[in-house]
Design goal:
The protein is of the alpha/beta class. The chain has 33 helices and 25 strands. The strands form six sheets. Strands 1, 4, 7, 8, 11, 12, 13, 14, 18 and 19 form a ten-stranded mixed beta sheet that branches. It has a six-stranded parallel beta sheet with strand order 22-21-20-23-24-25, sandwiched between helices. Strands 15-17-16 form a three-stranded antiparallel beta sheet. The structure holds ligand 26Q. Its cofactor is pyridoxal 5'-phosphate.
């Protein structure tokens, strides 16, 4: 945006007056935020319209990213940066006596996601807009996003999240673009012109109403769209019929059931529950999304037969996998294409990303549930399965077992992973090791059957939010040092490698880290009344709480450090601050116990004056995108310590790296590619490797009790879970102790404990030598450009979606 400061100030005052009927003096922070927001929205509207016109006029292929989650965080600052308005705005407001940061802090996070998968969708939208890909998000406008976490007496308590309580200034509702989604009922087959036609009857209709949010590209005048669907009762005939019949209660019940569809985001990220409402949500998303795509496609005079040349649809995990039978339904029942043609189009249009290898996390739906809620969709899946099974049989005659293993419908369930593979032309994992495991282990049968379909697309993160926005001082230092071309070409960050020996540069990196730590120290002081030592090593693990992510390994190590300090008060360890941020799924009781353990240990340590200057443990409540933007730039050490094979990729690992933290890592997920990019001298790795883990799983020979009996350090911390060491009721943590000592404990916590201790000794030694640490830190920043999601999106665009940038 080319706008002068004077014009901006003038517009702001006018807008404040017309929208809020207030002067600057009277305005609250919310007034100022709403005013600035609507001003920005006004400025970007022209480009939004222009972008849509351009896509239409140039007949560009469109990509739709279907996802049950979009974890967008705050939008205002992001828009200001991408529209090149941040400085003007900051200065202009300053002159009006308004502090921009206070205004930005008013905005609630748009938290419509659980974690990695949802945040990846948000980073991808930012990258698509920024490199000029005509790509749009399609999701659900949940009234309540991911729950708000409170810690009460050390326990996680979930509170409803209410991001829509105040007006959402970014969205535009489009009732004129609403579509109808149909549930329940039955299917009638009618013979017409020698072919069978199917009609869905006696269904319950739901109105899907879209709300559009602009996605602004970085200084390129592109504005794409995130379309979120909200469920509303059909006001037309349906409920009037009920009212007319005098069935008031039934009509009200209908309203309630409909609105519940977009009421809340399910907070599970690894144990999909087979809940009917979740299945409704998934179908609601894909049916609304596809109907609106087909409708807008048909407005041009293109033939439906050419649909695949103009549209690519990506499904973010299996959650939107009903897009496959739904597109088949639309093409066959509404557009009257035959099965072969419809199938050809569907598989060309759809592509699928898998985000987990854990079998318990793979989605499957009970046959009866799917069949009664979505009778026509079930028929189509049934037919897809029939055809799949006979194709397998044809290729591998006599191999009954193989057919049984690969069937989409089996054991009373519909397996969404298999449906997604069969119905798409591309299946990708999210880091090299993960894609290899899919191909060689978990989905081997399918990889043999469809050898060209499987590929890897290593995740990425948008450096615009995770560096430029969250770490402005570092951004400025980088641009002062190597120019600002890296912003459009993040691989150019590598130029910083030349400065690794420049002490003045390394000193600046250190100072900036201290400043970022100071902001976090202030936040912790204010919110938790815990005083942190800014010169201690800030060691952070921030991610969802899950056994495989091994927050437990981290806290056991902290208990060990504490034991060492108490035993040996003179020991000269470098002071450490351990920081956790993590939400547990509300029904995941072990994960919640681990939170209680972390808080119990934190209390004990933080209140023991003997270790006052050496050790602190902080659990930050309600980890979110905005808190991540505060935590990550303040980290010296990044904990990426999952059990090898379990973390598909991780993306937090990349964010910490980009902000100059040193990673303590297992060779899992994208940690491996991070190591390859920066060299092993710049990362601290430990623990079992892939082949060892697979070996232990297959021969079932892991006996943690042997380790416990052999290693006194381990015996002590494990015993401390249940003796009087912790001020908790005696058997509070007995379950954790039992899990750790169980034969074939699947996360190998005790097995990796010794190696983890050594890794932390290395951290300590390195940190003591300021310049060697800062050199590593600089190398991390320099090598992080490869993990920009711009690069990831270029690969998706070229290899999978076959779409080109519309820039230039
Ligand atoms: C499914 C059915 C019913 C209810 C909930 C769910 C559900 C919801 C969210 C299942 C899984 C998720 C989220 C998974 C997730 O975030 N996976 C992470 O994806 C990241 C992006 O690819 C990876 O970096 C992480 O390694 C992976 O754990």
């Amino acid at each position: 945006m080319n706008i002068s400061k004077e014009k901006f100030k003038h517009d702001f005052i006018e807008q404040l007056m017309t929208r809020r009927a207030k002067s600057v003096k009277e305005a609250s922070d919310w007034d100022k935020y709403a005013t600035l927001g609507s001003l920005v929205r006004g400025y970007l509207a022209r480009n939004w319209v222009k972008t849509n016109l351009k896509y239409c006029n140039t007949d560009s292929k469109q990509v739709y990213y279907f996802s049950m989650e979009f974890l967008m965080g705050r939008l205002l600052e992001n828009h200001l940066i991408n529209m090149n308005m941040l400085d003007i705005c900051k200065e202009g407001l300053d002159e009006l006596g308004i502090n921009l940061e206070d205004v930005l802090n008013v905005e609630k996070d748009q938290g419509l996601g659980n974690g990695g998968l949802g945040r990846l969708a948000a980073c991808f939208l930012d990258s698509m807009a920024s490199i000029g890909i005509p790509g749009h998000g399609c999701g659900i406008r949940y009234k309540r996003g991911f729950f708000e976490q409170k810690i009460i007496d050390g326990y996680q308590v979930e509170m409803p999240e209410k991001w829509l309580e105040e007006e959402n200034i970014w969205e535009i509702k489009h009732p004129e673009k609403a579509v109808e989604v149909r549930f329940w009922g039955g299917v009638k087959a009618v013979k017409a012109d020698g072919r069978l036609e199917f009609f869905h009857e006696n269904y319950e209709p739901v109105l899907a109403v879209p709300y559009d949010t602009p996605i602004v590209g970085f200084k390129n005048n592109t504005v794409n769209t995130l379309r979120l669907w909200s469920a509303e009762p059909i006001r037309k005939n349906f409920d009037f019929n009920l009212f007319n019949k005098g069935d008031y209660l039934k009509a009200m019940e209908y309203n309630y059931l409909v609105e519940s569809i977009s009421e809340l985001l399910y907070p599970n990220d690894s144990h999909p529950e087979g809940k009917l409402l979740r299945l409704k949500q998934e179908y609601f998303l894909v049916s609304a999304g596809l109907q609106s795509i087909v409708r807008s496609y048909k407005k041009s005079d293109k033939s439906i037969k050419d649909f695949a040349e103009h549209v690519a649809i990506h499904i973010n995990d299996t959650h939107p996998s009903l897009a496959i039978p739904e597109l088949m339904r639309i093409l066959m029942d509404e557009e009257k294409l035959g099965w072969e043609k419809a199938w050809n189009i569907t598989t060309k249009v759809i592509s699928y990303t898998n985000h987990t290898i854990m079998s318990e996390a793979m989605e499957k739906w009970p046959i009866d549930m799917l069949k009664s809620l979505l009778p026509r969709i079930y028929m189509i899946i049934y037919e897809i399965n029939e055809r799949l099974c006979s194709a397998i049989w044809k290729k591998y005659p006599g191999e009954w077992d193989r057919v049984a293993r690969m069937a989409i419908i089996a054991d009373g369930y519909v397996k969404m992973t298999y449906l997604s593979i069969v119905g798409s032309h591309s299946v990708n994992g999210v880091a090299k090791i993960h894609s290899d495991l899919l191909k060689d282990e978990v989905l081997r049968d399918f990889a043999q059957f469809y050898p060209d379909r499987f590929n890897n697309k290593t995740n990425g993160i948008t450096h615009r939010r995770w560096l430029i926005q969250s770490n402005p001082e570092l951004t400025e230092l980088i641009s002062d040092s190597i120019g600002d071309a890296w912003i459009k070409h993040p691989r150019m960050l590598r130029k910083l490698l030349e400065l690794r020996t420049d002490k003045a540069f390394l000193d600046r990196i250190f100072e900036i880290k201290q400043n970022n730590k100071k902001r976090l120290v202030d936040y912790v002081g204010k919110n938790y009344s815990i005083e942190l030592n800014i010169d201690s090593i800030f060691d952070i693990q921030a991610k969802r709480l899950h056994e495989y992510k091994r927050q437990l390994l981290n806290i056991l190590h902290i208990m060990h450090l504490y034991n060492m300090l108490i035993e040996n008060p003179q020991s000269n360890i470098h002071p450490r601050t351990f920081i956790f941020g993590a939400k547990a799924a509300p029904g995941y009781s072990v994960a919640k116990k681990i939170i209680k353990l972390i808080n119990t240990v934190a209390d004990k340590i933080n209140n023991d004056i003997r270790v006052k200057d050496k050790l602190k443990v902080v659990f930050i409540e309600n980890y979110s995108v905005s808190l991540a933007q505060l935590l990550i730039p303040a980290a010296n050490v990044s904990e990426q310590i999952s059990t090898v094979t379990k973390e598909a990729s991780g993306t937090g690992n990349m964010k910490f790296m980009m902000n100059g933290a040193i990673t303590v890592a297992t060779l899992d997920g994208a940690n491996i590619e991070m190591l390859e990019e920066m060299g092993r001298e710049n990362i601290i790795t430990f623990g079992l490797e892939k082949d060892e883990v697979l070996e232990l799983y297959s021969n079932m020979s892991y006996r943690p009790k042997d380790i416990y009996n052999r290693d006194v350090r381990i015996k002590r911390v494990v015993d401390q879970l249940t003796n009087e060491f912790l001020p908790a009721c005696r058997d509070e943590f007995a379950e954790i102790r039992d899990l750790l000592l169980m034969d074939n404990e699947p996360y190998f916590i005790l097995k990796d404990f010794g190696a983890y201790l050594n890794a932390h000794e290395i951290v300590e030694t390195l940190y003591r030598d300021k310049y060697s640490w800062q050199r590593m830190s600089a190398s991390n920043i320099a090598c992080s450009g490869r993990f920009s999601s711009d690069e990831t999106i270029r690969e998706y665009s070229g290899d999978i979606w076959k779409v080109k940038s519309t820039l230039i």
